[in-house]
Write a structure and sequence with these properties.
mainly alpha, 9 helices, 86% helix
């Protein structure tokens, strides 16, 4: 009888663990967001987070976007040539980059670079008892460590997404005009005429949500890491995995919200 119930016991245990984690993350998000609007404010931590998340992420975002835009133009041209509609390349590159590829790729790059960095930094602080020292000095760890990073990510990642969209479209423009024979003026006009305000707004909103997810996951796993070097490594790995999955899930939900009609 016990052997027959073992699979159900394992399923129940995993479901309870998942629900517990969801509740823990929700409480963590509430704590981080609430501390953003309550003094004291740590401007130096906020500016440092802006620099690390925004400026230092520009190279990887730019390289990822320009190659993705170029590859997208080649793929669309090859596919559309089978139906003799090659002229749609500018429009599809623009909508593909702005609506989907730009925000998602930037979000995943930020998760790979920033989430891992935040998790490793905070987990190391926990291992070396620096977080305990903050508490001893009457400094709330959530306010000092999580709130500035979450606020910075929510504000700066949309800017990264906007830059990534522009660079990605430019990558498609370069490939289309240099290799595929498109007229530059016509390509730019078709791109500008096809994009709508809703496309741009959805892209920036996705950037803010993805930035918040990336920062929250880094802070959450960093503050809840195990002890020792193994705990730091596990926290870093788990934070990136969770951020990537949540970004893709959030992308689906936001796309459904903006474009379901």
């Amino acid at each position: 009888m016990t052997a027959l119930l073992a699979p159900f016991t394992a399923i129940g245990r995993n479901v309870l663990a998942l629900v517990t984690m969801i509740g823990s993350v929700a409480l963590f998000v509430w704590g981080a967001v609430s501390h953003i609007f309550r003094p004291p404010f740590y401007g130096r931590e906020f500016l440092s987070a802006l620099f690390n998340i925004g400026w230092l992420s520009l190279p990887v975002v730019g390289m990822t976007a320009i190659f993705t835009g170029g590859a997208l133009a080649l793929q669309i041209y090859d596919g559309s040539s089978r139906f003799s509609v090659e002229s749609v390349v500018p429009q599809i590159v623009a909508i593909g980059m702005v609506r989907e590829l730009g925000p998602v790729l930037v979000g995943l790059m930020v998760a790979a670079r920033v989430t891992s960095s935040i998790a490793a930094e905070i987990a190391t602080m926990k291992v070396t008892e620096q977080i305990d020292a903050l508490v001893t000095l009457s400094t709330h760890p959530m306010k000092y460590l999580a709130a500035p990073r979450v606020l910075a990510a929510v504000l700066v990642v949309p800017a990264l997404v906007g830059i990534g969209d522009i660079i990605g479209i430019y990558g498609g423009f370069l490939v289309a005009t240099e290799n595929l024979g498109f007229n530059p003026a016509t390509y730019v006009r078709n791109t500008a005429d096809f994009l709508q305000l809703n496309d741009i707004v959805s892209s920036l909103v996705k950037g803010a949500v993805f930035g918040g997810i990336a920062a929250v996951m880094g802070c959450y796993y960093g503050m809840n890491s195990g002890r020792g070097a193994q705990g730091v490594g596990q926290a870093t790995k788990s934070s990136v995995q969770a951020a990537a999955v949540l970004i893709l899930a959030a992308n689906f939900l936001l796309t459904s919200l903006f474009f379901s009609s």
